[in-house]
Write a structure and sequence with these properties.
Elements lengths: L1 H13 L47 E24 L2 E27 L9 E22 L5 E24 L1
Antiparallel strand pairs: 1-2, 2-4, 3-4
Length: about 180
């Protein structure tokens, strides 16, 4: 009996691949379509990969400055610093004059630079108006602007004794 089931099973499995015709008495053909094979889905089209260039802006311009000042009514100052523009450091010198100042001090300052599109615009005469007093160690902030519209905002630490009431101007030259 087992052999008969296998033969019938094989015969039935071949049935979808055969077409059967009726005898002449029935008068019509019966066609059994082959069993539908599972259609293989076409491989998906590769998705377009868009690789965009990373946006990289140069870091903002930055200033580090060390300046000495001596004043008795009219003060003079001098110093050196570095401005970092487009990732590249440039050395500069500072010379200044202040009115209404008294004392001696050493200033360490760092800060940002705005409106600097070309390094050639950095040198120039910077003006600030401030009033301040420092005895021992003090901290302050100064904003200065030159004739090219470049603005430097410095946060500073002042060592020494200095009293200042009035305008201050410095000239920056690239080394």
């Amino acid at each position: 009996m087992f052999k008969r089931i296998i033969v019938i099973g094989i015969g039935l499995s071949l049935l979808p691949f055969a077409s059967v015709q009726a005898d002449e008495a029935g008068g019509e053909d019966i066609v059994v379509p082959p069993r539908a094979r599972p259609a293989q889905a076409p491989a998906p089209a590769p998705a377009p990969v868009i690789v965009e260039k990373a946006v990289s802006a140069p870091p903002p311009a930055w200033v580090e400055l060390e300046r000495l000042s001596v004043a008795a009514g009219i003060g003079i100052s001098w110093g050196d610093g570095t401005v970092t523009f487009a990732g590249k450091p440039y050395g500069f010198s500072v010379r200044g004059l202040s009115v209404g100042a008294l004392g001696a001090s050493k200033l360490y300052a760092v800060g940002g630079v705005r409106n600097l599109d070309r390094i050639e615009d950095f040198p120039g005469a910077y003006m600030s108006v401030e009033a301040g007093f420092a005895a021992g160690a003090g901290a302050s902030a100064i904003t200065m602007r030159n004739e090219h519209g470049v603005v430097i905002t410095l946060r500073s630490e002042l060592l020494g004794t200095q009293f200042k009431l009035g305008p201050e101007g410095i000239r920056i030259t690239l080394n």
